[in-house]
Amino acid sequence: MIPYGRQDITDDDVAAVEAVLRSDFLTQGPAVPRFEAAVARATGAAHGVAANSATSALHIACLALGLGAGDLMWTTPITFVATANVGALCGAEVDFVDIDPESFNMDPAALEAKLDAAAAAGRLPKLVIPVHMCGRSADMARIGAACRRHGVRVIEDASHAIGGRHAGAPVGAGVWSDITVFSFHPVKIVTTAEGGVAVTQDEGLAAAMERLRSHGVTRDPALMQGASEGPWYYQQLELGLNYRMTEMQAALGLSQMERLGAYVARRNDLADRYDAALVDLPVDLPGRGGQTLSAFHLYVIRVDPTRRRAIFEALRAAGIGVNVHYIPVHLQPFWRARGFAPGDFPVAEAYYARAISIPLYAGLSEADQDRVVAAIASAVTEAA
Ligand SMILES: *Cc1c(COP(=O)(O)O)cnc(C)c1O
């Protein structure tokens, strides 16, 4: 089976993890801050805060921005469930903004209209989380400006997008948002096995996220109530969690980050090859418009919705590990029980009915890619 995504592990990666295992620190040592600095440097941010997953990083990012009970949080229905779940975990009410059919990202016009209506009703969200679907940045200039106009905070879920660029800046530079979160799950661009990093230009938000990932505890006397009682002393200032990344994960990520540019370039080359090879088939290819360099986490083709299942099954039977990203979040039973229903976000639902993610990863050989193309060509004609 040619999978839809796969990690790339080199001898250097293995040596970096082994060195940590033989060192003094398995957690809370020097590798995590070095990895955080490497991610911040590569993405144009001042601060990076590592966590044991992107889900955890999104959760502490929401908490650091003050999201809580009685607040509203908005995201896109075309994302992994984690993006919406972190709002519910904070006690907030979650709602969605439909997508743009060309980019599969949150539609800025739909967001502007929904923000204006919410402002008129006196019920604005506290924060909005756009997602850079497939590695292509959402239209952050418009989304960020609309949110700023209404005093709404923004977290970019850039789980797919490390190494991407938008309007002249790396994704993560925080030009249009408060915090940006990257995932290092093995199918993503760069991996730490499990892991996430939140980057920000704001020192206060970085410090808050550092506390929240480690029980809400500080050892900084300047932040304490009253005087420190000695070198052992710490204080818990708020309710936090243990969301820490291990040293082994950080060492793997640090070693992988050296290849970030090469990974994104390779993914773009493979995407260009797919564009050329699939252009004459009855499938719609990913949109490439806008001033952005996609990190190309995913390559999604869209097919006739009445044949999507047959084409998907034919590809799986041919040994092609296709997948679907994503089932619209609002259609999950958990969210239907909170009042959502089919028809609520029609552009997202129409996209879902047609989408198939085909294999794309840095280690995909051109010969294997040609096999994928041949299988798609035969599946779309067979199914017809
Ligand atoms: C992978 C992913 C997440 C969750 O990342 P984890 O590191 O697995 O917690 C969140 N949002 C999106 C869009 C993702 O693709």
From TrEMBL:
<dbReference type="InterPro" id="IPR020026">
    <property type="entry name" value="PseC"/>
</dbReference>
<dbReference type="InterPro" id="IPR015424">
    <property type="entry name" value="PyrdxlP-dep_Trfase"/>
</dbReference>
<comment type="similarity">
    <text>Belongs to the DegT/DnrJ/EryC1 family.</text>
</comment>
<dbReference type="InterPro" id="IPR000653">
    <property type="entry name" value="DegT/StrS_aminotransferase"/>
</dbReference>
<dbReference type="Pfam" id="PF01041">
    <property type="entry name" value="DegT_DnrJ_EryC1"/>
</dbReference>
<dbReference type="GO" id="GO:0008483">
    <property type="term" value="F:transaminase activity"/>
</dbReference>
<keyword id="KW-0808">Transferase</keyword>
<feature type="active site" description="Proton acceptor">
    <location>
        <position position="188"/>
    </location>
</feature>
<keyword id="KW-0032">Aminotransferase</keyword>
<protein>
    <submittedName>
        <fullName>UDP-4-amino-4, 6-dideoxy-N-acetyl-beta-L-altrosamine transaminase</fullName>
        <ecNumber>2.6.1.92</ecNumber>
    </submittedName>
</protein>
<feature type="modified residue" description="N6-(pyridoxal phosphate)lysine">
    <location>
        <position position="188"/>
    </location>
</feature>
<dbReference type="GO" id="GO:0030170">
    <property type="term" value="F:pyridoxal phosphate binding"/>
</dbReference>
<dbReference type="GO" id="GO:0000271">
    <property type="term" value="P:polysaccharide biosynthetic process"/>
</dbReference>
<dbReference type="InterPro" id="IPR015422">
    <property type="entry name" value="PyrdxlP-dep_Trfase_small"/>
</dbReference>
<dbReference type="InterPro" id="IPR015421">
    <property type="entry name" value="PyrdxlP-dep_Trfase_major"/>
</dbReference>
<keyword id="KW-0663">Pyridoxal phosphate</keyword>
